[in-house]
Please model this.
Amino acid sequence: MKRILGYLKYYKKEVIIGPIFKFTEAVFELIVPLVMAKIIDVGIKNGDTIYIYKMGGVMILLGVVGLICALICQYLASKASQGVGTRLRNDLFKHINSLSYSEIDKIGTASLVNRITNDINQVQVAVAMLIRLVVRAPFLVLGATIMAMILDLKMSLIFWACGILIAFTLYFIMKKSVPLYKVIQQKLDRVGIITKENLEGVRVIRAFSKQNYEKERFVNASEDHSSIAVRVGKLSALLSPLTTAITNIGLVAIVGFGGIQVNLGNLEQGQVIAFVDYMMQILLALVVVANLVILFTKATASIRRINEVFDMQPSIKEFNTKEIVAESTDAPKVEFKNVYFSYGDSDEYALEDVSFKIMKNETIGIIGATGSGKSTIVNLIPRFYECKKGDILVNAINVKEYPFSQLRKQIGVVAQKQALFSGTILENLKIANENADINLIEKSVKIAQMKEFVDGLPDKYETMISQSGKNLSGGQKQRLTIARALVKDPEILILDDSSSALDFKTDRNLRNALKENTSDMTVITVSQRVNSIRYCDKIIVLDDGRIAGIGSHDELVKNCDVYIDICLSQNISIDEKEVG
Model:
């Protein structure tokens, strides 16, 4: 809560002045019943028309001034709440981007989206209500009770009795409902996850005719969320009728007891009407308080979820912000020294005792069965993940010593899952290098085997790409992401299974183009296809997180059983003499 309240320091003026105007409005509202009582007891009783008009004018003036105060407070509350929400959203987005893959994987993208949108919206509304109503509603309750005491002390006991009963009701409802709001947000996360999976995987779902299954899965998650929401709703729904019932009982007591006092001559008729007005003010204020309880309960649950993200510190930290100058030019470009890695808190290693050297300008292939750790290795080089034990060096310098920007500036990554953004082809290509000229862009597109496709488009580089590249085929997306990495002109180019959607001819042309035009780059290719890495200078063969062999294709077919099995599984002929 302290972290969220800290954002209010940027809006001290609004937070202080807003409630003052609302307090002024409440004061005027409390004066109105007294004016009404005077009109009845003096003006109407004595038939004094001038007095009635005069006091009526006072009531109108009180109403107009109160309205102006309310509008000013509303403006200040909106300004503060939107400002807090914007700052909080920006800071949360910035913090999320500082987290490593491990933390993002732990929370999940659907939950993060829900927290940065829905949860912050709840906080925004809470800030607005804090300025507008937190001062006004309790003051009206307390003020109406004090005004009643001034009018008649005995009659005010009815107000106190109603207040105690309502306070007990609020406490009971809060105690039962507060813990459930966090559960509601968690259930909403689950609905968000299923929705995201369905929208992203709609083609797969339809291909396997799993629409009914997915509908049932969504309905179950939605009903699970709905059942908790209904349970909380039932508890919250008790607030208004219970407070109304208690207040109405108080009204009956006021009218009954007040009538007796009027007959006895202890009270004036106008005073009884004032008591009724004050009780109605208390009723309306308590309804507001009841809604505020629900609102702040939701906001509290949302704040806890937001704080969970803020409290989560990145497991991969930048230890140095100054650029490092590599001293040795003969050192390996990339080196792994006895590297161990596991995902999350798992005790099972995804990589175990991995050691190898990649020299400058070498082309390296990494191959192995699914789950053998191929992608894990290349994700460790730019420090997307942190190894548990061992050292990873780039230019003979431990990757932990590099600033993130300097390390990742040297590396161009084409991820296994293509990520494109809505915008033009040119905008997507320039993500890697904003200052890239058209010659570099055209060269990169040509190497990636995209030139013919781009030239055939009516708008060429200005062609719009839809969200996630939905208007491109799998192969087109892969080639575009390869071109984007080449536009960066990196020292190390990592291709993580980036040609899996390409036909064999395009794949061959791509490999030949890379070989001819990237002689000054160190190229690391992860692939399931032997033909994609067959002619690399060196091939690293992985088996269940361990290195099964390192060498050229010819060397591996002689001494690496795992590599031989992979070749045979892909119908790649191996000379038996070479194997033996």
